[in-house]
Write a sequence for this structure.
């Protein structure tokens, strides 16, 4: 389907010729109403004429398009936008392109000059004039036209280079500030034949660098289907390439309580400039995180030496935690009906031989339900569809990937049909020596409502040894198994479970299994997972799925089809400790496992503190009351969504969302259904120290006690709800 701009208004500056003209004609051809702005100056910035803009408008109208001319300088940005509003009633696209190039010697850089006034200040003034109109209508696309001279520098163009790189900095900030309003800003650095380039390029080269080879990317970046934001692209001659920042691993050149010397810098210069296993920070938060890591390592005794870099990587394994952690995988959608729900139940051993299984096998049953562990199925696409392979910093051999552990928590009973969307994030990467462990957090939503949360723990054989940490406070931990109180056994078969979506031939094809070193196809680990959970549900919850809260298992050894799975269980409050064995061999296949049932479990996270609750719950309760009282006022002042992850003894035990962006504001327990603007991770005790004024937030951040993801600058706005800590 072709891209249409019907009903959209486009402002193109410098549109009297060259690239600007090509953009204006292309937008008009696809239905846009175009404001053709051109001051009508010559290549030296002198003179003024309306002829250039008028000619383009005439050409557009002759082809049946809609256009109006504007002859104002970009320094009069309000006038340009007013022309669009007067003629077309709205401003739907903003395209900043400036067709002016004047050479100045370096000595004139500090003098106010036409280059800076037009390119940089003009970009700012036109954008500022359109900004509130775009925010109001919740839509806008801005394209800044920079230059290779700004990106790389060029002899004799100091002023021009500075102005063009300034436009890139402006565009990057606009991309951040505009994204919550569906305003996206990107930058292009085009090479095209024009009245300017024809004076410095051979005629045949100018002829091959046609403006029409640049216009298509501008149209795509301006279209509502395009979700690119904050990008920088070089384009010309029919070629397009994206640029990004790259940073070396660097090197720590000081020791704790020791001065830093220029000699230390000299001695480590080769390491500082070594781009092997380089990182690619995407935002200021990621940039600052490296500094926080350095402070933590120096305080921990890591001193100036050739191997102490700011981030940890391994050239042998291709694992780069600093780059991978926090990366989000593309969202996946899972559509299903009662057939998939029933197939899953059959795949984990349910049968009509047991009358109480019928509620999971017959769609006409009055209590027809979905088994709780079906919650892993919609989330597995992140693993099965190769999503991990697209994550920067995870250059791994997928033939060496093993499923290590699995955690599933339900926030409400699963539907028996519908459409679920899963959003996955790399939570952490650990170095276990013989391999690497990747923790993948997956939140699954029905619409905007959070349904369940999975944490996948995968082990990559041979990918360890990169010097990373061995443990993570983000990992859902297994527990020590207690003595058995109850044992349930059931014979299993693997062919049926694969119909739920895991089509790995390892579980069905003998020849493929032999390639992996197995004598026969092995059972899916998540099939054993489902069997064990079902045994607990039957034994301790009367097969009532609403009683199910969470399950955690560690996969130890494979199970062969035809073997019997034996589940040993021990009840402790509302936590059921489980261990699964192969009955025929007594080999443990699931260990350190448990199922939490709904209720006031003495082992549940909510009861990890004395008195049965977290101290922070009282604070969030007070915050909730404040939002109810003055929520509308807070939304106007703050306009942000804050996520909180509260930890206890190194484990995440609670999540909260403070929504001061939508409606009259809200507080709810659990992660945000969309993307929080900023997320804080802090222990329950340190949280109380901060809100009571006993711990300075900045010191907490730089000491690693308070971790921040997202727009770090928004953290300053929390003062309006955390002040008056005595009352909290």
């Amino acid at each position: 389907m072709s891209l249409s701009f019907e009903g959209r208004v486009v402002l193109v500056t410098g549109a009297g010729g060259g690239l600007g003209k090509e953009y204006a004609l292309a937008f008009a051809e696809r239905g846009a109403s175009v404001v053709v702005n051109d001051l009508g100056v010559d290549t030296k910035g002198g003179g003024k004429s309306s002829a250039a803009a008028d000619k383009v408008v005439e050409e557009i109208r002759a082809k049946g398009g809609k256009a109006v001319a504007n002859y104002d300088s970009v320094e009069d940005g309000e006038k340009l936008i007013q022309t669009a509003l007067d003629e077309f009633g709205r401003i739907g696209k903003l395209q900043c392109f400036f067709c002016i190039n004047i050479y100045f010697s370096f000595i004139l850089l500090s003098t106010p000059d036409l280059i800076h006034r037009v390119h940089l200040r003009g970009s700012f003034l036109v954008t500022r004039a359109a900004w509130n109109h775009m925010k109001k209508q919740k839509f806008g696309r801005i394209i800044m036209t920079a230059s290779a001279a700004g990106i790389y520098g060029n002899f004799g163009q100091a002023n021009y280079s500075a102005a063009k790189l300034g436009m890139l900095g402006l565009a990057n900030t606009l991309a951040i500030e505009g994204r919550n309003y569906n305003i996206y800003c990107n930058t292009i650095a085009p090479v095209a034949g024009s009245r300017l380039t024809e004076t410095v390029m051979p005629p045949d080269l100018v002829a091959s660098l046609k403006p029409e080879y640049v216009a298509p990317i501008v149209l795509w970046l301006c279209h509502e289907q395009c979700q690119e934001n904050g990008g920088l692209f070089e384009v010309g001659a029919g070629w397009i390439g994206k640029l990004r920042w790259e940073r070396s691993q660097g090197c720590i050149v000081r020791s704790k309580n020791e001065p830093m010397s220029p000699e230390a810098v000299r001695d480590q210069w080769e390491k500082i400039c070594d781009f092997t296993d380089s990182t690619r920070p995407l935002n200021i938060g990621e940039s600052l995180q490296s500094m926080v890591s350095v402070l933590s390592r120096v305080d921990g005794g890591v001193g100036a030496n050739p191997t102490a870099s700011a981030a940890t990587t391994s050239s042998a394994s291709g694992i780069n935690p600093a780059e991978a952690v926090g990366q989000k995988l593309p969202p996946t959608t899972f559509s299903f009906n009662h057939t998939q729900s029933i197939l899953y139940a059959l795949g984990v051993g349910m049968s009509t031989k047991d009358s109480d299984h019928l509620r999971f096998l017959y769609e006409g049953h009055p209590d027809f339900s979905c088994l709780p562990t079906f919650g892993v199925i919609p989330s597995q696409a992140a693993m099965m569809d190769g999503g991990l392979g697209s994550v920067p910093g995870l250059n791994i051999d997928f033939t060496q990937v093993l499923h290590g552990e699995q955690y599933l928590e339900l926030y409400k009973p699963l539907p028996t049909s519908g459409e679920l969307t899963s959003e996955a994030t790399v939570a952490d990467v650990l170095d276990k020596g013989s391999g690497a462990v990747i923790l993948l957090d997956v939140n699954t939503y029905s619409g905007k409502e959070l349904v369940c949360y999975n944490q996948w723990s995968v082990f990559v054989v041979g990918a360890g040894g990169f010097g990373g940490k061995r443990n993570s406070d983000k990992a859902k931990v297994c527990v020590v198994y207690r003595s058995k109180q109850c044992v349930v056994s059931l014979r299993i078969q693997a062919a049926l479970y694969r119909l739920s979506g895991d089509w790995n031939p390892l579980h069905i094809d003998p020849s493929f299994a032999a390639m992996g070193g197995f004598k026969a196809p092995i059972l899916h680990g998540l099939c054993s997972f489902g069997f064990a959970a079902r045994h607990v549900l039957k034994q301790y919850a009367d097969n009532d799925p609403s009683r199910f809260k969470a399950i955690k298992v560690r996969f130890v050894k494979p199970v062969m089809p035809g073997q019997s799975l034996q589940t040993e269980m021990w009840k402790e409050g509302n936590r059921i400790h489980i261990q699964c064995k192969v009955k025929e061999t007594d080999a443990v296949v699931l260990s350190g496992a448990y199922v939490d049932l709904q209720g006031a479990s003495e082992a549940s996270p909510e009861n990890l503190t004395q008195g049965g609750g977290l101290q922070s719950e009282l604070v969030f309760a007070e915050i909730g009351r404040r939002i109810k009282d003055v929520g509308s006022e807070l939304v106007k002042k703050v306009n942000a969504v804050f996520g909180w992850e509260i930890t206890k003894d190194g484990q995440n035990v609670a999540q909260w969302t403070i929504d001061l962006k939508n409606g009259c504001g809200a507080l709810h327990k659990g992660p945000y259904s969309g993307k929080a603007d900023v997320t804080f991770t802090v222990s329950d005790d340190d949280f109380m120290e901060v809100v009571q004024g006993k711990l300075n937030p900045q010191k907490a951040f730089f000491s690693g006690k308070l971790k921040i993801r997202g727009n770090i600058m928004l953290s300053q706005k929390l003062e309006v709800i955390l002040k008056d800590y005595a009352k909290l």
